[in-house]
Design brief:
GO terms for molecular function: DNA-binding transcription factor activity; sequence-specific DNA binding. Pfam families: DJ-1_PfpI, HTH_18. The chain is α/β, with parallel strands linked by helices. The chain has three domains: 185 residues, Rossmann fold (3-Layer(aba) Sandwich), CATH 3.40.50.880; 42 residues; 79 residues, Arc Repressor Mutant, subunit A, CATH 1.10.10.60. The chain is 44% helix and 9% strand. β1, α1 and β2 form a beta-alpha-beta unit. The longest helix is centred in the last third of the chain and has 19 residues. The protein starts with a strand and ends with a helix.
Length: 339
């Protein structure tokens, strides 16, 4: 994996990439399906000035190492009106042409669009720049209301913290839910937020965080195999269902039912990865009820059938790293597959 750095790049997103993909992970010994990422930085020049000139990166590797990378993280722009350098755009185009997996954080979507690799594809970027993006790149199907978009060979995320969400999503795809959860714990970050979750909540986060809601979430996670309703969650939190809805909107950014369904789907994915339970048992253990409901919800939330998910991500699958070309082909195949 190679991250391209360009003059003016934001340091936060680069730090996220370094934290998630670049650190050694001795705590994961014996858990990995494939070697951990060989993470490297490169640029068109040996020294790169970061956003606002706060600091510079020196002795950065040359841009041509992109030619051998299976995953390329493109640079974002503090001012999307300023185009990335021509060598960077050409490197991105070449990577796309040979089938590398491309990924952007925040305004990095402008870099991908500048290279023409988002034409006809769905993508996202920071909500603040949505209008400017649409005006400049009308051939891209922009969705500014989600945290990230996975198009197989090309992945884009919204602003700042959504970089963590997309990065953990990629780790989950490459190494499984257990490894992604371990990485998120080390980063002290929520293990997985659905990519379709809204970028921001309707009102500011409350000044006083309600510790009881965290307790309710953990309580529910331990009981996903049992019938649970919004009223059950409200009773556990000692509030009315209406109050629970307000607190979920403020603190979680979604509704209790959407959150609960997402947690059940994630548990189902973990069960599919870990073993060979029949689909009706996976559905029962995750609280999704029936195999039919499992199929429907997995396709809605993940985009593939349970059988295809197990084939691609199960522990008995081939332990090869995911290349961009094969990922794209698998994604297209998965959308066509049926039980």
């Amino acid at each position: 994996m190679v991250a391209i750095v360009d003059n003016g790049s934001n340091p936060f997103e680069l730090g996220v990439a370094t934290e998630l993909f670049g650190l050694r992970r001795p705590e994961l010994d014996g858990q990995l399906r494939a070697p951990w990422y060989d993470f490297r930085l490169c640029a068109a020049t040996p020294t790169v000035s970061m956003h606002a000139g706060f600091f510079s990166l020196s002795d950065v590797e040359p841009l041509d190492i992109v030619d051998d990378a299976d995953t390329v993280l493109v640079p974002n722009r503090p001012d999307p009106a300023v185009s990335p350098s021509a060598p960077v755009v050409e490197a991105v185009r070449s990577a796309a042409a040979r089938g590398a997996r491309l990924m952007s954080f925040c305004t990095g979507a402008f870099t991908l669009a500048e290279a023409g690799v988002l034409d006809g594809r769905r993508a996202t970027t920071h909500w603040r720049w949505a209008d400017a993006f649409r005006a400049r790149f009308p051939r891209v199907e922009l969705d500014p209301d989600v945290l990230y978009v996975d198009e197989g060979a090309v992945l884009t995320s919204a602003g700042s913290a959504a970089a963590l969400d997309l990065g953990l999503h990629v780790i989950r795809k490459d190494h499984g839910a257990d490894v992604a959860n371990a990485v998120s714990r080390r980063a002290v970050f929520a293990g997985h937020r659905d990519g379709g979750q809204r970028q921001f909540v309707e009102r500011p986060v409350p000044r006083h965080v309600h510790a009881g809601l965290s307790d309710v979430l953990e309580w529910a996670r331990r009981r996903l195999d049992r019938p649970l309703t919004v009223r059950d969650l409200a009773r556990r939190a000692a509030v009315s269902p209406a109050t629970l809805h307000r607190r979920f909107a403020a603190e979680v950014g979604t509704t209790p039912l959407v959150w609960l369904t997402g947690e059940r789907v994630r548990l189902a994915c973990q069960l599919l990865e870990r073993g060979e339970l029949p689909l009706d048992r996976v559905a029962e253990a995750s609280g999704l009820g029936t195999a039919s409901n499992l199929r429907s919800l997995l396709r809605k939330h993940v985009g593939v059938s349970p059988t295809e998910y197990r084939r691609r991500f199960g522990y008995r699958s081939r332990t090869t790293s995911v290349s961009a070309g094969s990922t794209s082909a698998s994604a297209r195949e998965a959308r066509r597959s049926s039980e």
